[in-house]
Amino acid sequence: MSACVGESFDNPDGTSRQEIIKTLRVGNRVELVADPLNKHDRWAVGVFTTGQQIGFLPSDARDSMTLLRGEPIEATVARLIGGTNWFSRTIQGQKRIGVVLKVTKPFPEWSRTDRLNNLAKPFDDAVRAARALEKSGDLERAIDAYRNLVGDIADFTESNKFVSAHRYEASPVDRLSLLLEKTKRYEEALSLIID
Questions:
Q1: Is 2-104 assigned to CATH 3.40.50.2300?
Q2: Which of 17, 103, 160, 174 is most buried as measured by Cβ atoms within 10 A of its Cβ?
Q3: Residue 140 pLDDT class (50, 70, 90 cuts)
Q4: What is the 3 state secondary structure string of the chain?
């Protein structure tokens, strides 16, 4: 079981997640959507019903990694908690409705996992090669390599969101920022942090 988070917020289009949740019933299926481009959490997984978002899986849910890897997951509403009845709303003051999901996972398709691992491997290899340049003291070449990788990883993640979950080396944006500071290119380092 996983409790949704963020269900008290409104969606970017102004729709109320709480109003959408009021239409749900126990047993309703919901859709889990990987959101690797989420600026707050690379492992974010949105929870949707009829195309409208009702929240996110919690960041510590192990199901997030499974879904981001592109493996199938099914989710249904197990419970609605909080302001679902008169007693909760008026006596206990619980106006917000929470959603608890039952999440089930079939066995992963290993051939698909292998294919995605093979697509991600060149990025991990390139990050390790850039780190080796940095350790050898060739900072200019390391900066160039990191800069190219940051852009390449972002572009590739946008075109294939599942591959990003199969990379094991962290995106080198932090290393790039630190090297730019070390070489006294403060404005370039700052622009990385702001963007």
A1: no
A2: 17
A3: very high
A4: CEECECCCCECCCCCEHHHHHCCCCCCCEEEEEECCCCCCCCCCEEEEECCEEEEECCCCCCHHHHHHCCCCCEEEEEEEEECCCHHHHHHCCCCCEEEEEEEECCCCCHHHHHHHHHHHHHHHHHHHHHHHHHHHCCHHHHHHHHHHHHHHHHHHHHHCCCHHHHCCCCCCHHHHHHHHHHCCCHHHHHHHHHC
